[in-house]
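Trying the structure run again after the queue cleared.
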Amino acid sequence: MSSLSLALRDSSTMLRRNLLHARRYPSLTLNLLLTPIMLLLLFVYIFGDVMSAGIGGGDRSAYIAYLVPGLLLMTIGSTTIGTAVSVSNDMTEGIIARFRTMAIHRGSVLIGHVIGSVLQSIASVVLVGAVAVAIGFRSTNATALEWLAAFGLLVLFALALTWIAVGMGLISPNAEAASNNAMPLILLPLLSSAFVPVDGMPGWFQPIAEYQPFTPAIETLRGLLLGTEIGHNGWIAIAWCVSLTVLGYFWSASKFNSDPK
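Done. Tokens:
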């Protein structure tokens, strides 16, 4: 077999392994998934009328439309925390040392984690999106091409955050530290335009909300699903995704190859 065939075979085996782990131990994924769902229900049913008035909407449905794109991306950030924990467990429980004694492609371990995490992230997004539709979210005249672009953005964003989460898992001495190290993936959406427009924030805080990866991705997703102005946010979101993917890949590969465990 060629090296490419071996890499594909071993990566698919590691992918099946990670998906089986996720199926057998669903509590971590479910706990992380509950955060965006609870925030969705909280902001819609408790704060929805007030927040809708604050952004100039006529009723609660206006705020549901505003809120959902941000929470879909927040769901990705929440799901990838489980990836950091899973990678840390692999590195500290001795299984990686066993894999290194076997005739398998070296990078297949990380590739399996990454692909499995992206699949779980998209499945979680679909679930949160279904809850959003059930409580009143509706897309506004989005074409098939815009839906495809929105899906592509979600996959690209999931890939970028997953590689960063893998790196965080590799540098963590245990699962608790991995969870803490990956916590910014949940906190950053809270500091973005996910819940309120950047223009409505205090002046000193606006640069924090604007110059981070979540805000341009959220504004791009809103534009695709709701027909709002995207402007330059689309290119900025893609640039963030590509940069984080490259950074996370080289960081993870370097740490994995040099780790003595």
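The radius of gyration is 19 Å. Worth checking whether this holds up in the mutant runs.
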